[in-house]
C-alpha cells in the first residue's frame, strides 16, 4: 500500500524567506500560460462539457455514498457464477498468508501439501511458511548487500542502484525462490516453527530492517569503504547480516536445525517420535525434484518462443535469476490442462485485482461494468495493459481443478491463501476468459512439455531489467 504524500516544501521555512521565494517564483513566471497548461478558457470548456443529466446525478449520488466496485458489479454476470467442477484434485484445508506478501511461498508449499499428507497418512497437513520465510528474508538481505557491493562504484542515480535502494527487503517472490529455499534449507511442519504476529503482518519488521539495510548500503558505498579490499568489505557485510539475523529472530523466531516430531494419522493412531533435519523431513515426506519444474509465461508484448531472465529476480545470491519461456496463451492453457487432469496442481501468477470478487470467490471477465457507471471506455488489450503498466502479476495461487464443458475448460478451480473466509471456503472459480487476460505464468513439470517448448530452455536467455512489469510479483 502506498503511503500518502504531502507537499511540505515551505512547512519549516521562516516566513520572510518563504515570502522571498514566492516573489522570485512570481517574477520568474512567464506572462502567458505555457502551451499545454490548463487555461481558464479550457477549464470553462471542460465545465460546459459536463452535462449533469438525471442519470449522471443519480450516479454521483450513488458513488458519494457507496463503493465503486459494488455499484459497478454486473449482477447478471455474478448470477451466472457456479462452483461446479468436473475434475478436482483432492486437497484438504486452506492456508492464510494474512497481511504479508508471501503468496508465492504459500502457493509453492500448497502444491506439496497433498504429497506430504499422503506420505504421513494424515487427514491434512501444513508446512511452516514461517521457517522458509525467515531464510528468504535473510537471503534477500544478503543479495541486497552483495548487489550494493557490486554496484558501489556506480553513481547513486544509476537505475540499478536506485531500484535496489527502493526494494531492499520485499516479501514477494517467484517459483525459483521456493526451489532455492527448499533445496538449501528443507522444510518443517507448521507446529515446529509456528506463525508469529510479524510473519502474518510484516510491515513493521520490513520497515525496520529496510532502514537498517539502507544504512548498511550507505556504509558500503562510503569513501572509507572504497579503500577496503573485497575481503574486508565482505567481513563488514557478514557483521551486518548478524544484525539482520538478530532482528529476524526477534520477529520470527529462530529456525530449528533439528527437531523431533510426531503426528496423528487419519485413522486416529499416533506415530512414534522421530528426529529430522529440515532437509531430511522434506526428502522423506515430499521428495519432489523441484528442478524438474519449469516456468512458462505468456506475455503478448514480448516475442513468443523465446527464453527470458530477469536481473535480480532471485532470493539466494548464488542461484540463477528467474528464467522462463514465453509461449502463446492457448499453448500455456493446453499444458496446464494436461497437468491438472493428471492430478498435478499448477502454481500460477496472475493480476488478481482485476475483475475478481473475493466475497463471491470468482474471477470473471465482465464482472464489473465501469463503462456504464462512468460513461468512459476503460478497455485495453492485454499487450497494451502490460506495456503501459496497467496489468502486472500481483499474486500466486494454485490450480487444483477444472470444469470441462463440451471438451473445453469453462472455468478452473483455484486454491488461494487468504483463509477460509475468502471465496467459497477459500476456493475461487477462475473463468477461462479471465485466464486468457490476467494469468501470466504457470509452473509445470517438464514431462508435460512438447519438444518445441522444451527446446526453448536450451536458448541463451534474453535478460530483462528488474523494473520490467513481469518482476512486480517479487515486490508485493
CATH superfamily of the largest domain: Cysteine proteinases
CATH class of the largest domain: Alpha Beta
Report Rg: 26 Å
Query: Could you give the distance between the termini?
Result: 9 Å
Low-confidence segments, ≥5 residues, pLDDT <50? 1-29
The CATH topology name of the largest domain reads: Cathepsin B, Chain A
Q: With helices defined by DSSP (H or I, 4 residues minimum), what is the helix count?
A: 19
- The secondary structure category is alpha+beta
Question: What is the tally of beta strands?
Answer: 14
Instruction: Please state the second-level CATH architecture of the largest domain.
Output: Alpha-Beta Complex
State the helicity in percent bands: 40-55%
Can you walk me through this structure?
There is one protein chain. The chain is of the alpha+beta class. It has helices spanning 15-28, 40-49, 54-65, 68-72, 75-79, 103-120, 129-150, 159-166, 175-185, 197-200, 203-220, 223-226, 230-252, 278-285, 329-341, 370-374, 382-387, 432-438, 451-454, and strands at residues 87-88, 259-261, 274-276, 293-297, 306-310, 323-326, 346-350, 356-357, 362-363, 395-405, 408-415, 427-431, 439-445, 462-464. The chain has two domains: 76-90 and 293-475, Cysteine proteinases (Cathepsin B, Chain A, Alpha-Beta Complex), CATH 3.90.70.10; 127-285, Cysteine proteinases (Cathepsin B, Chain A, Alpha-Beta Complex). Strands 1, 4, 5, 6, 7, 8, 9, 10, 11, 12, 13 and 14 form a twelve-stranded mixed beta sheet that branches. A two-stranded antiparallel sheet has the order 2-3. 35% of the residues are buried. Mean pLDDT is 92; it is low at 1-29.
Amino acid at each position: 500500500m502506498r503511503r500518502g504524500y504531502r507537499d511540505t516544501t515551505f512547512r519549516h521555512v521562516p516566513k520572510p524567506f518563504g515570502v522571498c521565494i514566492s516573489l522570485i517564483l512570481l517574477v520568474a513566471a512567464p506572462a502567458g500560460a505555457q502551451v499545454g497548461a490548463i487555461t481558464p478558457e479550457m477549464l470553462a470548456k471542460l465545465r460546459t462539457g459536463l452535462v449533469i443529466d438525471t442519470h449522471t446525478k443519480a450516479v454521483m449520488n450513488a458513488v458519494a455514498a457507496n463503493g465503486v466496485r459494488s455499484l459497478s458489479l454486473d449482477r447478471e454476470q455474478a448470477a451466472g457464477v457456479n462452483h461446479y467442477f468436473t475434475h478436482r484434485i483432492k486437497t484438504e484445508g486452506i492456508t492464510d498468508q494474512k497481511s504479508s506478501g508471501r503468496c508465492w511461498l504459500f502457493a509453492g508449499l500448497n502444491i506439496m501439501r497433498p504429497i506430504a499428507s499422503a506420505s504421513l497418512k494424515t487427514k491434512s497437513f501444513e508446512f511452516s511458511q514461517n521457517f522458509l520465510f525467515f531464510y528468504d528474508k535473510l537471503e534477500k538481505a544478503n543479495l541486497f548487500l552483495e548487489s550494493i557491493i557490486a554496484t558501489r562504484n556506480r553513481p547513486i542515480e544509476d537505475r540499478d542502484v536506485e531500484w535496489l535502494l527502493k526494494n531492499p527487503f520485499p516479501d514477494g517472490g517467484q517459483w525459483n525462490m521456493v526451489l532455492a529455499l527448499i533445496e538449501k534449507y528443507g522444510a518443517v511442519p507448521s507446529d515446529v516453527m509456528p506463525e508469529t504476529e510479524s510473519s502474518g503482518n510484516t510491515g513493521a519488521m520490513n520497515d525496520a530492517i529496510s532502514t537498517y539495510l539502507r544504512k548498511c548500503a550507505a556504509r558500503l558505498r562510503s569513501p572509507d569503504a572504497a579503500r577496503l579490499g573485497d575481503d574486508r568489505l565482505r567481513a563488514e557485510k557478514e557483521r551486518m547480516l548478524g544484525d539482520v539475523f538478530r532482528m529476524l529472530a526477534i520477529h520470527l523466531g529462530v529456525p530449528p536445525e533439528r527437531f523431533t516430531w510426531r503426528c496423528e494419522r487419519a485413522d486416529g493412531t499416533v506415530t512414534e517420535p522421530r528426529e529430522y533435519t529440515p532437509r531430511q523431513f522434506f526428502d522423506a515426506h515430499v521428495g519432489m525434484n523441484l528442478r524438474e519444474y519449469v516456468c512458462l509465461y505468456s506475455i503478448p508484448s514480448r516475442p513468443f518462443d523465446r527464453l527470458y531472465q530477469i536481473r535480480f529476480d532471485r532470493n539466494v545470491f548464488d542461484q540463477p535469476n528467474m528464467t522462463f519461456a514465453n509461449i502463446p496463451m492457448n499453448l500455456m492453457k493446453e499444458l496446464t490442462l494436461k497437468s491438472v487432469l493428471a492430478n498435478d496442481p499448477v502454481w500460477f501468477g496472475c493480476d488478481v485485482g482485476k475483475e475478481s470478487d473475493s466475497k463471491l470467490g470468482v474471477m470473471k471477465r465482465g464482472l464489473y461494468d465501469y463503462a456504464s457507471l462512468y460513461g468512459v471506455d476503460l478497455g485495453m488489450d492485454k499487450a497494451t495493459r502490460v506495456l503501459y503498466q496497467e496489468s502486472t502479476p500481483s499474486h500466486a495461487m494454485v490450480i487444483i481443478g477444472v470444469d470441462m464443458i463440451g471438451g473445453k475448460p469453462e472455468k478452473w478451480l483455484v486454491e488461494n491463501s487468504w483463509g477460509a473466509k475468502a471465496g467459497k471456503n477459500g476456493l475461487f472459480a477462475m473463468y477461462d476468459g479471465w485466464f486468457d487476460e490476467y494469468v501470466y505464468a504457470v509452473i509445470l513439470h517438464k514431462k508435460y512439455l512438447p519438444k518445441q517448448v522444451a527446446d526453448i530452455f536450451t536458448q541463451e536467455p534474453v535478460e530483462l531489467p528488474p523494473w520490467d512489469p513481469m518482476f512486480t510479483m517479487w515486490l508485493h
